[in-house]
Write a structure and sequence with these properties.
Layout: E1 3-7, H1 13-22, E2 26-30, H2 34-41, H3 52-61, E3 65-68, H4 71-75, E4 80-83, H5 98-110, E5 115-119, H6 127-139, E6 146-150, H7 160-165, E7 170-174, H8 177-187, E8 194-197, H9 199-230, H10 234-242, H11 263-276, H12 282-306, E9 313-317, H13 332-342, E10 346-350, H14 355-361, E11 366-367, H15 371-375, E12 380-383, H16 395-401, E13 406-409, H17 416-421, E14 425-427
Parallel strand pairs: 1-2, 1-4, 2-3, 4-5, 5-6, 7-8, 9-10, 9-12, 10-11, 12-13, 13-14
Antiparallel strand pairs: 6-7
Helix pairs in contact: 1-3, 5-6, 9-11, 9-12, 12-13
Bound molecules: uridine-5'-diphosphate-xylopyranose (UDX) (2 copies).
């Protein structure tokens, strides 16, 4: 078993550190946010992730997991230092590396024994080499032996613990095969395929995987828009496509498109890197355009059905960027709410986990305590995030509470013909409007 230090206790770092502890390693998770570390030391989770709190509590209890803001403490005796700090988008789409640099500089300042630095964060291709240069610069010739391994994560928020414990594959990249094998040893117990390649290729696998998944979604959303014009049902189209083993059924759900802290950031960063290196990322640009357009299409549907948005009341169900998370980073729901407010509507909404974060991002949003209050006095209702609890609502109550009759089902979770029969005016995404 190994001593591991994880830098950054966000959606990636906290899950990664806790899962490694659960596999029997001794893990110290570090964060520069003192409040966050203090909360974690009190057993308070800074993020909502199903199953995480129980895992954290168990491993803290077992003495395998602890939290600190001190690099000296975190690095002491650690054989591995995992970097899982944010790499947000800059205005031009380039990944902002200041946090990675700060983490690497801090590691360099406290480096007094051989260590393997593992890049978990999604970082531009070439970062592995850059990290090594930074440490040599910082410490000159006196640097203890170290190596850098790229180990991109493929965790989905809302299923991150599962995705960590049952990965489809572990990807490792390094110029030092021994170091890569040592990191591979950490994952052996998971019995998943482990691929070892070079640094740049491992970094690119992460971007290419996310960009491909984002492209799949933009593809099915383009098909959905064509289905609407031609009277086909995109849900059935996706079902028929997915039976082809080369296509597969996953990530073919048409709707309001993708958001979150990864797809938008990673597709932008890959496009930026491509353009900067002289390539022409025309497909990636179209993937982003189609995705943003899905949000505007939902606003247009409401506007057309209501004969304008000025002075109208719109209820929005779901505010996080996807179900089973409290993360509102680049949430399609919040983007649409901003557009509705700008058009003169007033908006009221509910989300099982993301209420505070949403109110902080969109102060003019009125928060309701449940889906039925969201319907109260609403001229139109938008399903933006497909939380399970929205899937079987009492539409008799919804209709009675509403002032108008327009329902836009942004994630195709409701039975359109059923709602139409009740006298509601149902619109899906890529599904024929019920007669
Ligand atoms: C982040 C990146 O967004 C993602 O692209 C990458 O794959 C993994 O790391 P996430 O865990 O969602 O994913 O980041 P975030 O939730 O922003 O958490 C980052 C944490 O790092 C924060 O708690 C922040 O306080 C901490 N941090 C940031 C440090 O500890 N040190 C720093 O120098 C900067
Ligand atoms: C994604 C990748 O799946 C994961 O491998 C990577 O490590 C981080 O980025 P995440 O962003 O947490 O994970 O969620 P994911 O479940 O992939 O959904 C991303 C977005 O796509 C969400 O906004 C979701 O609503 C949307 N989506 C997903 C669709 O619109 N249709 C689909 O069929 C699937």
């Amino acid at each position: 078993m190994a001593k591991i230090c994880v830098i950054g206790t966000g959606y990636v770092g906290l899950v990664t550190g806790t899962c490694f502890a659960d596999m029997g390693h001794t893990v110290t998770c570090l964060d520069i946010d003192e409040n966050r570390i203090h909360q974690l030391q009190q057993g308070i989770m800074p993020i909502y992730e199903p199953g995480l709190k129980q895992l954290v509590d168990q491993n803290v209890e077992a003495g395998r997991l602890d939290f600190t803001t001190s690099y000296r403490e975190a690095l002491k005796g650690s054989e591995f230092a995992l970097i899982a700090v944010g790499t947000p988008s800059s205005d031009d789409g380039e990944a902002d590396m200041r946090y990675v640099k700060s983490a690497v500089d801090s590691i360099a300042q406290h480096l007094d024994h051989p260590i393997i630095i593992v890049n978990k964060s999604t970082v531009p291709v070439g970062t592995g080499d850059w990290v090594a240069e930074l440490i040599h610069e910082q410490n000159g010739k006196g640097t203890p032996p170290f190596s850098v391994v790229s180990n991109p994560e493929f965790l989905r928020e809302g299923s991150a613990v599962n995705d960590f414990m049952q990965p489809d594959r572990v990807v490792l990249g390094s110029t030092n095969i021994e170091a890569a094998n040592r990191v591979a040893d950490l994952y052996q117990v998971l019995r998943s395929p482990i691929m070892i390649t070079d640094l740049r290729t491992a970094e690119m696998i992460k971007y290419a995987s996310n960009a491909f998944l984002a492209a799949r979604i933009s593809f099915i959303n383009e098909i959905a828009n064509i289905c609407e014009s031609l009277g086909a049902d995109v849900r059935e189209v996706a079902r028929g496509m997915g039976m082809d083993k080369r296509i597969g059924p996953a990530f073919l759900d048409a709707g309001l498109g993708w958001g979150g802290s990864c797809f938008p950031k990673d597709v932008k960063a890959l496009t930026y890197m491509a353009a900067k290196s002289g390539a022409h990322p025309q497909l990636l640009r179209a993937v982003m355009d189609i995705n943003m357009n899905q949000r505007s299409l939902a606003v247009r549907k409401l506007e057309q059905a209501l004969g304008g948005l000025e002075g109208k009341v719109i209820g929005v169900l779901g505010l996080s960027f996807k179900p089973n998370t409290d993360d509102t980073r680049d949430s399609p729901a919040l983007d649409i709410i901003r557009m509705l407010l700008k058009a003169g509507a007033s908006v009221q909404g509910f989300d099982p986990q993301a209420m505070q974060a949403s109110k902080a991002e969109v102060p003019e949003l009125t928060l309701c305590q449940n889906p039925y209050d969201v319907a109260k006095g609403a001229d139109g209702l938008l399903l933006a995030t497909e939380w399970n609890e929205f899937k079987s609502l009492d539409f008799g109550r919804i209709k009675a509470n509403m002032r108008g009759r327009v329902i836009v089902d942004g994630r195709n979770i409701w039975d359109g013909p059923e709602l139409q029969k009740m006298g509601l005016n149902y619109f899906g995404v890529g599904v024929p409007n019920p007669k």
